[in-house]
Design brief:
CATH class: Mainly Beta
Keywords: Oxidoreductase, Signal
Shape: globular
CATH superfamily: TolB, C-terminal domain
Pfam families: GSDH (PF07995)
Protein name: PQQ-dependent sugar dehydrogenase
Number of strands: 25
Helix content: under 10%
Organism: Luteimonas notoginsengisoli
Strand order of the largest sheet: 3-4-5-6-10-9-8-7
CATH architecture: 6 Propeller
Number of domains: 1
Strand content: 35-45%
InterPro entries: 6-blade_b-propeller_TolB-like, Glc/Sorbosone_DH, Quinoprot_gluc/sorb_DH_b-prop
Order of helices and strands: HEEEEEEEHEEEEEEEEEEEEEEEEEE
Radius of gyration: 20 Å
């Protein structure tokens, strides 16, 4: 006979989910239980999160009392990611396959040609863009996108190429070559991940979500549900934790992840990632070499069909999140702030929220993390980035998604 033990934390979690569902409708992120579901869309900004530390979370800020002014700079068609170039111009990707070069001072934008063909639909399409650390000299950029496979399958890919800029404000991607792919390609249109990040050592980091297929997150013959670390040419660094095993296993830095949509380094050089949980249990994780974060064996959320997933504290051999949210915030992106424009926030993390329509500020205390403040933005936030002058930049999700510049009041 199987006995289901309802721990106080699980009971608290269930009560939060039931209360939230009764008053606000479905809040959960996309997950394996709702195959091919779109990104979460129901608002949950008023929900109270339950961080793993059990410290009280800040209530959502009144939009009229936000500590920053939000200035609209431009609008886009389903924007997904942005990256600043050394000259201060901004690159913005659009899910259907658009790439824009934007003047942040005026909002004027021009098209970048040569974007690879993307498999658009559901959560799939054109994804992230990351300039090479030496872009000022080599003009190399990296793009992630979803590509079609055989028999109605698809997966994320990362390509490297040269960005040739022209006097009209636009330009073209040239000599694109794929340096990484999700393995295997599977059906469905959810959970690609494919956020890109360069570390101070010049290594390329890629988030590879588990494609709503559960088990690949623990399968070392697959690179799904993993954090990936590569050299800038796509080869595998010799000091990766599983490099000696070869194949896609060698690419893996950490495993046991679900839908990873934000990644950044803090000032101490530690790597953090934020990922969507199933029905509850969005996570902020400190990513460690060779770490296993437990999905789908453990989670602080449950499956959408009601099946229980054991909590992280039942399996201490897996790395537990440093903060978690039930009800969910539906994290889309992560930026750890280092600028001077908001000096009180230096070292804090900022998470874009989709269903929560929020910008979430997280404070760190050593390896511990807690939500400190939640700003109600009134729209789904797809991306958050720090500008060269220390301003915080946001991209709203969807058609007509605005590019917003946040500056102190």
């Amino acid at each position: 006979m199987t006995v289901c033990r309802i721990t106080p934390r699980r009971l608290h979690r269930r009560l939060l989910v039931l209360a939230c569902a009764g008053s606000l409708g479905l809040l959960a992120c996309t997950g394996p239980g709702d195959a091919a579901a779109p990104d979460p869309s129901a608002p949950s900004a008023a929900a109270t999160p339950a961080p793993a530390s059990a410290t009280p979370a800040a209530a959502p800020a009144d939009r009229g009392a936000l500590p920053f002014a939000a200035t609209e700079v431009a609008t886009f068609d389903e924007p997904w990611a942005m990256a600043f170039l050394p000259d201060g111009r901004l690159l913005v990707t659009e899910k259907k396959g658009g790439l824009k070069r934007v003047d942040p001072a005026t909002g004027a934008s021009a098209d970048i040609r040569g974007v690879p063909e993307v498999d658009y639909g559901g959560q799939g399409g054109f994804g992230d863009i990351a300039p090479h650390p030496d872009f000022a000299h080599n003009h190399v950029v990296y793009v992630s996108y979803v590509e079609a496979g055989d028999d109605d399958t698809r997966g994320a890919a990362v390509a490297r190429g040269t960005l040739a800029l022209d006097d009209s404000g636009g330009g073209a991607l040239q000599d694109l070559a794929v340096i990484w792919r999700q393995v295997p390609k599977v059906d469905g249109r959810g959970h690609f991940g494919h956020r890109l990040l360069f570390g101070s050592d010049g290594k390329l980091w890629i988030t590879s979500s588990e494609r709503q297929k559960f088990d690949p997150a623990q399968d070392m013959q697959s690179n799904l549900g993993k954090v990936i670390r590569l050299n800038d040419d796509g080869s595998v660094p010799a000091d990766n934790p599983f490099a000696a095993k070869g194949g896609v296993t060698a690419q893996v830095w950490s495993l046991g992840h679900r839908n990873l949509l934000g990644i950044d380094f803090d000032a101490q050089g530690r790597l953090w990632e934020v990922e969507m949980g199933p029905q509850g249990g969005d996570e902020l994780n400190l990513v460690e070499r060779g770490g296993n974060y437990g999905y789908p064996i453990v989670s602080n959320g449950d499956h959408y069909d009601g099946r229980v997933i054991p909590d992280h504290d039942t399996r201490p051999e897996f790395s537990a999140p440093k903060a978690w949210w039930t009800p969910v915030i539906s994290p889309s992106s992560l930026m750890i702030y280092s600028g001077a424009m908001f000096p009180d926030w230096q070292g804090d993390a900022f998470i874009g929220g989709l269903s929560s329509q929020s910008l979430v500020r997280v404070e760190f205390d050593g390896d511990a993390a807690r939500e400190a403040q939640r700003f109600d933005m009134g729209q789904r936030i797809r991306a958050v980035e720090q500008g060269p002058d220390g301003a915080i930049w946001l991209l709203e999700d969807g058609k007509g998604g605005r590019l917003l510049k946040l500056t102190p009041r």
